[in-house]
Amino acid sequence: MMMIETSLLQASLIARQKKFNLLLDFSTKLCYIYIMITILITEFHSFISVKIFEGGEFPRVRTTGLLSGLNRILKAELAHFKSIGVEVSISRKGVGKFGGVKWKDLQVVAQTVWRENA
Fold this sequence. Notes:
Layout: H1 2-33, E1 37-43, E2 48-53, E3 60-64, H2 67-84, E4 88-93, H3 103-116
Parallel strand pairs: 1-4
Antiparallel strand pairs: 1-2, 2-3
Helix pairs in contact: 2-3
C-alpha cells in the first residue's frame, strides 16, 4: 500500500515538473518574440556600417564599401529575423555621406525579403 502511494506521489511530481518545464520553455520563447531588433545604418564617406542590436551587451557590426554589399547584408539579416519571427526596425545615421542610399531602396530590399520568406 505504501509503495503504491509513493509511486503515485513520484508520478505526480514528475507531471508537475513537466508542466513547469513546458511553461518555462513557453515563457522563454514568448519573451524572445517580443524583443525588437534594431538595425542602425551609419553612413561614412567611404563605407557603411550596419549595427545589429539584438538585446545583448554589444551590437554585431558589419561594414561594407559597396551598395550591393549593403543590400546583401540587409537581405541576410532580415531573412534571418523573418525566419524566427522577430520584428525589426531600421534606422539611419549620417544620412547622405556615402551617397546613393535612399529610404525607398531600403524599403524595396525589406519588402523583397518579406515576400520571399512568406
